Amino acid sequence: MAPYPLPVPCVDAALLALSGWGRANAYARIGIVREERARMRAALQRLPGVREVLPSQANFLAVRFDDAAAVYRGLLAAGIVVRDIRRYPNLGDALRITLGTPAENDRVLAALRESVPCA
After folding, report:
1. How far, in Å, are 18, 31, 47, 81, 84 from residue 58 at the CA level?
2. Contact 110, 40 (CB under 8 A)
3. N or C: more exposed end of the chain, with fewer CB within 10 A?
4. Residue 37 located in a structural domain
């Protein structure tokens, strides 16, 4: 027995992820995230009540709102959970929106159109 045995299902999953198929699948997903990040950024910047969409190279966008608390409550009421980052330094007006599938992102945008208070 090896000194640090690994469960066979975990090893199989890791080998699949590192296979040609697994890497191709990961790169395809990264492409979708990049496209959705650009699309969501542009759409969010056009919403009333959005002050700024901060630059991002990640799978999320930090968005500054005129009334982040009201937007947060509105999204929760619509069944959409975003990360409240208002407690972080210099982000007292911001929420973090994780990028999802195109359909999920469309749902977020629709909910924001209804919950973002106009300035």
Report:
1. 21, 12, 21, 18, 17
2. no
3. N
4. yes
